[in-house]
């Protein structure tokens, strides 16, 4: 059974676009190697295929075609990525929605920041070639 089917919607009746990406579980592991949640630590030790499937307001994190976690958001999802902010050890799942940024930690904490601008109106840095991104240069 595919993850699309596990989303609870048949492929014939869905009109929403979807995307998915495979990721190395090392990306979601804490930098200090001390995961705070035994369930997550166990899942991240599984070297199988880790995938995020995104459609509409839903995200499914699967491991080897088995659902590990499901997330349902309040509004449509624009982008999803794993990250480490600053010097924090814990991996964070950052979810950019039309009207908010939601950050889920692997230990279960959730932070939601309401945005004052509709993110669909912003130009996407993901659609630009890497050389088009602005990076401050250092003085020589």
Automatic annotation (TrEMBL):
Residues 16-116 form the Anaphase-promoting complex subunit 1 N-terminal domain. It comes from the Eukaryota. One of its GO terms (cellular component) is anaphase-promoting complex. InterPro entries: Apc1, Apc1_N. Keywords: Cell cycle, Cell division, Mitosis. One of its GO terms (biological process) is metaphase/anaphase transition of mitotic cell cycle. GO terms for molecular function: molecular adaptor activity. Signal peptide: none annotated. This is Anaphase-promoting complex subunit 1 N-terminal domain-containing protein.
């Amino acid at each position: 059974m595919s993850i699309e089917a596990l989303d609870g919607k048949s492929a014939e009746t869905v009109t929403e676009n979807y995307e998915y990406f495979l990721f190395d579980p090392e990306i979601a592991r804490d930098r200090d190697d001390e995961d705070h949640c035994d369930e997550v630590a166990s899942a991240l030790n599984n070297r199988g295929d880790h995938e995020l499937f995104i459609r509409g307001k839903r995200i499914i994190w699967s491991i080897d075609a088995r659902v590990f976690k499901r997330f349902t958001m309040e509004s449509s999802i624009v982008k999803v990525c794993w990250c480490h902010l600053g010097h924090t050890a814990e991996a964070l799942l950052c979810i950019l929605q039309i009207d908010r940024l939601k950050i889920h930690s692997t230990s279960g904490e959730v932070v939601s920041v309401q945005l004052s601008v509709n993110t669909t109106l912003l130009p996407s840095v993901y659609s630009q070639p890497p050389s088009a991104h602005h990076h401050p240069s250092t003085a020589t």
